[in-house]
């Protein structure tokens, strides 16, 4: 039975790719740097001497119905460029992302294959080691990020999934992001059971405000944006964590406790606690394991830092 399912999956993958060859051929990766006048298509880009190729390479992948300049991914891109401590690639798979959602979802694997191939050719050509690569994806792009990681045999150091898309994904979907995508996979859930999902997908899964909608401050906007506000909170949280790596202190909490929305999930951090507490986002140590909970503010800055308390949400 398993072999049959696998064969059907391969056949669907082949058919999906064949029907959308033109759109897939237009998927691109762009190099961004403060020293460059504009982004550069990496397939033809020759980094100038002022680009330090020894830096860690961040690769951002947007979600459905978006593109490289979309507001969903722009805060993260901007935060990295302002910090100017890493090299930055941004995927643009808009020709596929702008198709109907079921079609875009079916094309997750061929899009991942295309991005992975461009990335591999680029880093080999310019001399960047795989150990420098960190892939970050949002929504449907989170699952693509996972599959790009798998295209490197799961040997990349880190994949970060920001509110992985939920519709048309099952807990055992073979093309969903998972812990086999990289040596370390961290996930931030903000719209579970709606546009996102609440399945545990990584080595470390974070559930700010229990990972569900409406996220604080999104109560009205979720109605207007059809849950877009809560779905996008994951990118806002991550962007904020780049310049402020200790702004989101999350504490270990079992999945059962999180799903029951128990107050015990977040102890008062000013008192001795037996629960492991770690920074959610960019500053997370790859040794983190398990599921974690934190609270946030309703407005930026969203992080409450070390002053987060179990009974407080601003």
Q: Could you provide a short overview of the structure?
A:
The chain is of the alpha/beta class. 31% of the residues lie in helices and 16% in strands.
**Any idea what the CATH superfamily is called?**
Alpha/Beta hydrolase fold, catalytic domain
Largest sheet: 11 strands, mixed
CATH classification class: Alpha Beta
Distance between termini?
51 Å
Mean pLDDT value: 91
Write the CATH fold name.
Rossmann fold
What is the annotated CATH architecture?
3-Layer(aba) Sandwich
Share of helix, binned = 25-40%
Number of domains: 1
Low-confidence stretches: 310-314
Main location: secreted
Domain Lipase: 51-267
InterPro entries: AB_hydrolase_fold, Lipase, Lipase_N, TAG_lipase
Subcellular location: Secreted
